[in-house]
Every structure is written in structure tokens, then in C-alpha cells.
Amino acid sequence: MLYGLDYPAPGAPELATRVAELTSAETVDYGLDHGAWVPLRLGWPEADIPVAQLSVQPQRDPAHHWRLGRALAPLRDEGVLILASGAATHNLRAYFSNDERAAERSRSFTDWLSDAVTQGRTDELLDYRARAPEAVFAHPTDEHLLPLFVALGAGGGAGRVLHRSLDGSLAMDTYAWG
Hints:
α3 runs parallel beside α10. This protein has a domain at about 85-178: Protocatechuate 4,5-dioxygenase, Chain B (3-Layer(aba) Sandwich). β2 (about 165) and β3 form a beta hairpin. The chain is globular, with a radius of gyration of 16 Å. The protein contains ten helices and four strands. The protein has about 180 residues and is mainly alpha-helical.
């Protein structure tokens, strides 16, 4: 179903070049991943804003992604919106199971996440697997939470909650910095 949808936003090659300068990233045109175009489609349904996507590196840790965000921070002063999308929890096995405690376990993690983000506890966030309750349950693998660390790095300090929601064990909480 997702493959049948289109989001024809104009590209931003100058921005992609600037991102490469700031991060030493390689510029490659793969088109937009659903992790980018789904939130963009909701926020800008006319697809009339230029977009450049920076992919996460799932083999790298949260600290690497936080450093990427720190490197991107100057873009904020250049009028660039840094939008990082992922999921506050992402355990599809639990979502499709009959685990009666799945929502409770996810809520335990997202409550911790919300407190850590809004209190600016960067060191704890970067070590979330060891410090957060239910971290491994909420994120069997890191890749869907890694964009949060890019946003955390770009924003610096404490963030604020824009939205919190839980559908079964899947949470799509939203935070902003600045």
C-alpha cells in the first residue's frame, strides 16, 4: 500500500551539499523513505517545500547520531527545519501479539523518555538501553529511535512535548527543540 503513494516534494540539492559539508555525509539520490514522507505528507500535503533526507546509520549508536545532530545545528540559524521522524516505541511483535502488558511496558518507556527529553538528560538518553525501563522491549533494535538523537543533538538541551499517543504498544510521541 505505501508503495502506491507518492510525495513529489522538490529536492534540495544545495541543502544536501551543505549537509555533506557539515557532516562528511555522502550525497546520494535514493528518493524519500516512508519515514520522511509520511510526516511531511501530514504537515505539508501539497508537497511544496524543498526536502533533503539524511538517512540514519542503524549500525551506529545513539552517540553517533547525536553528533550528527550537533553538526547540523547551524542549519537552524540558516532557516532549515530539521525534522527527525522515527517512533517513540517500535516493537511490532508486541503490537501484533496478545501481550496484555505490552501497552503498560511501552508507557513505562515513553514516560521515562518524555521526562529525560524535557529535563535535558542527554547522557541518560544516549545510554537509554541501560537506563530506561523497558528499553529493549520498546526498541528491540535502535533504528526507529535513532532520529530522536539527531534532533536532540541539533536542538541542544531540553526539548518540549508536542504530542503523546499510544496505540496498543506503539507510541508516536513528538518533541521539539528551540
